[in-house]
Structure formats: C-alpha cells, structure tokens
Amino acid sequence: MSSFLFQFLFLSLHTPILDFSCCFYHPKNTYFPQQKPKSPSSVMPKSNRIVTPLLFFLISTTFTYNCLVFASPVPEQSLKRPDPLRHFKPYNGVYDIRNRHYWASAAFTGIHGYAVAGIWFLFGLGFGSYLILKNLFGSCFRIVNYPHSFYIATFSLVVLFTLLAIIASSFVFAASKSSQKRANRLVDTVFGAASDASGAMRRVINSLVDMQALLRPYDPQTCNLLNVTSHRLRRESLLIKDFVAKTKHPSHEAVEILYSTTVAVVTINLMLLVAALVLLILHWYPGIMVIIFCCWILTTLSWILTGFDYFFQTFARDTCSALVKFEENPDDSSLRFIHPCASPSDSNNLLVQIGKTVHNFISQANTKLTELKAVLGIQEGNEDTLGFQEICDPFASAPNYVYAPQNCHKDAIPIGDLPNILSRFTCYKGNSSEECLVDGRFLPEASYVMAEAYSHSIQDLINVFPDLLSLTQCTSVKQAFSDIVVRQCKPFKTSVRMLWSSALSLSLIMTVLVSLWVAKTCRDRHRSFAKFSIVPKPV
C-alpha cells in the first residue's frame, strides 16, 4: 500500500496529467510506469518557478545600495559648521564618515581647546625667553616685603588648586575609562552587525552552490544564473569583510590612543603636582623651575586633549542623532551601513513570491497525499504505515505567506527528508525488475535522483530563508542601531561629556596653578626660608 502512495505522490508532482492506472501493476507491462524522458528544457520551467524568484531577490537586494560606508543621497538637514579644508566656509553636508570635510568640520568644533593651547604655549615661550634674557643681563626682580598673612594665603591657594587638580585628574581618569569602554562597545555593536550580514551572505552563497550542484543535470541555464549571483554575493561579502578589517581595528586604535594619551598626560601631571608641592616646602627652586617647565607643556597638551574631547563629544552627538533619525525613518536618513538592503516594497513582494512558491509546492504534495489516503482507504490515525503524516510546510497560507516553521505538525517531515523515505522504494540499477517487484521497489533510480535534487533544492531554499529575510529587512543593522539608541547612546554621550568637562576643569585649574607657581617662585627665589617654612626669614 505504501509503495503505491509514494509512486502516486512523486508522479503527481512532476506529471501534469496523472493516469491512475499507471500506479498499478499489469502483467503485460513492466512494473514501472512508462514515462517519456524529460529533457532539460522540459524541466526548466519547474525549476525556474522555484529558483527565479530567489535570483531576482538576490540581485535586487545585493545591488540596490552599493555603498561601503555611512552615506546617503537622501537630502537631510545639513550640519552647518566651518570647514577648515574649504577656507572655513560652512560645511553643508550630512553625517558621513567617508567625507573628509565632515571630519574637518567636526574636528574644528574643538577649536577652543586648540586655540587656548596655542596661546598658552606661545605665552610660555615669550615668558621663558624674558626670564632667560633677564638672567643673562644680570637684572633681578625687585624684592618687596609682604606681611606673613600674604605668604600663608599664597601657599594656601597653591595647596587648594593642587588638591583641585588631583580631584579633577581623578574625574578625568574615571570619565576616560568609561568613555573608552562605551566607545569600544559601540564599535563592536556596529561592526558586529556587519559581520552578521557577511555571515548571512556566506550562508546564502553556500546554499546557492549546493543548489547549482543539485540542479546542474536538469537545468544548466538556472545553474549559470545561480553561479553569477553567487559570485556577485561573494564579491559583496568580501567587500564588507575588507571594510570591517580595515575600519574596525583603526576605530579601536583611535579610542585606545585617546585613552592612553589622556592617562599618560594626567598620570605624569599628578606625579609632578606632588613633586612640586614637596619642592615648594623644601624651597628647592631649580627643581621647581624644571617642574614648572614640564607642567607648562603638560597644560598645553591638556588643552589640546580638551579640544579633542569636545570633538569626540560632537562626533558622539552626531552619531546618535543619525541613529535616532534612522530609527524614525530609515528611508530618509543619512545613515547607510555596509549592508545591501533592498527597498521594503520590492523585498516584501519577492519574499512573498518565494513563500508562495514553496507553500504551493508542498501544499500540492500534501493534497495528493491526502487524496491517495482516501483512495487506498488509510484511516486517520494510521499514518504510521507510511512513516510520516505529512510534509512540513513552513509558510502560512495566502496572502502573506509568512515564514512560520513552528506551525508544522509534530509528525511532519521536512521536504529534504523525503528522498530518505523514497530510497526504500527505489529500484537501483544493480537490482533486477523481478527483485524490485518482490521488494516493492517501484521507483526508477533516475526519477529518485531528480526527486532528490528538487527536494534538497527546496530544502536549501527553506533553510536559507531566515538569512534572506534578515538581509532584505536589514535585521542585523536595525537590531544593532536599536540597541545603540536605546541602551548605549545616552550613557555614551554622558561619559564623553563628562570626559570633556573634567578635562576642561583640569586644564583651567592647571593654568591657574602653574601661574601661581611662577608668581610664587619669582617672588620667593631671592628670599631665605627655613625648611618646611612658609614664611621667609626676617631680613
């Protein structure tokens, strides 16, 4: 009974008009139904009905946006900032990390730090030259007597600003570590989405290669199309991997360089602060002059870092704003990731077409299976005779053909497992017709091989459908961007803002403190102090 079922099921999927009499044994005929051999051209419409929607889908999604960076031709509100590369004319572009004018305009937002650093450095050169010339020509500062309270107040100010500098340095350490951690997490999230997209492409490519091998004997033309598409996808995947390899490491390096430079400057500055306080108490002025010189340079670097931190804050704000706009309206955003996302309408139509093709194919098989059960008198609940109840259809019915593999019956088998069952009823070339007749092996080997090819091709298409769905809907990108917007943007911007504000505070405090050191050193240098004394000896 089961042998008649599988013969009926297989032939019904490949024969437009099925003669029921061909399924039964007649003494004058061979056991196998006489079928006209199918040429490749006669098989092609069947395979094209399955594969062509996939080809159109892949080609349209792969080459809709051929970009490797954040960029978009969609008009968006421009960022009006001075662009140093265009003689400080306004930069009227959008957020675009491949555009050097965007980077120049964003970096220019930290001009307050760079400008103060330049002024402070030039003032130091001028003041240092003045002191050197004054000493060379033998002149000295006029000695003025001040009350003891003045010396106590001056020393108290030095101690106060030293403590403030130490506190500000602690905040810089904490904010720098926090911003480094959050920046690296954001970079990993973004490039993780790119890696996921590349992995999905790679799985699609592997499925296309498998389908080529299966369909080559029956449909060479479709195999050629699959080959072209797989090569194009492979090229896109390599471009994504190359972009990730070239960009991810430099991004982490930039974050690490900013963090390491900040930590190095602040650490050295802290050591010099403590040393300066000790030397002021000991009144060892040569050492104090060396520390003033070093701290002057470090204060200059601190102002430069303050400018860079503000630039970092600007970039963080721009990035999160672009991500929020992408969340609100992906089609009207300046943010395009290294990902071939198709337009929603086209991709949805193609996905529906693929779902419809697979659904109709499996539904036809299950319908024939039900009809044959009725003809053969198999009662409901006795499907164990066949080894399975139905073929799993992972797609819902019309009109949307939603992919829902969880709806399959527990006793249903994947269509890819159908050849395993058909093999028990296949008459191979090594068996004689009499042996096959006795064993109930009614299916010709050529028909079994063709059934295996189509079954596995459809199963490959079903297996890769989640990846196709992810690629068309940009799932990895949207999930990554949503995670950044919801969970990462606010703490990231807060940590970067804290880094800039603490660096600004440290720079201001060090500017005042170094000025106090210079004033105190010039005033106290020619006076006599006892060790650990704040007030000079009476003259």
TrEMBL record:
The chain crosses the membrane at residues 50-71, 106-130, 150-175, 257-282, 288-312, 498-519. Keywords: Membrane, Signal, Transmembrane, Transmembrane helix. GO terms for cellular component: membrane. The gene is LOC113698309. This is Transmembrane protein. It comes from Coffea arabica. The lineage of its organism: Eukaryota, Viridiplantae, Streptophyta, Embryophyta, Tracheophyta. Residues 1-19 form the signal peptide. PANTHER family: TRANSMEMBRANE PROTEIN, TRANSMEMBRANE PROTEIN DDB_G0292058. InterPro entries: DDB_G0292058-like (IPR040283).
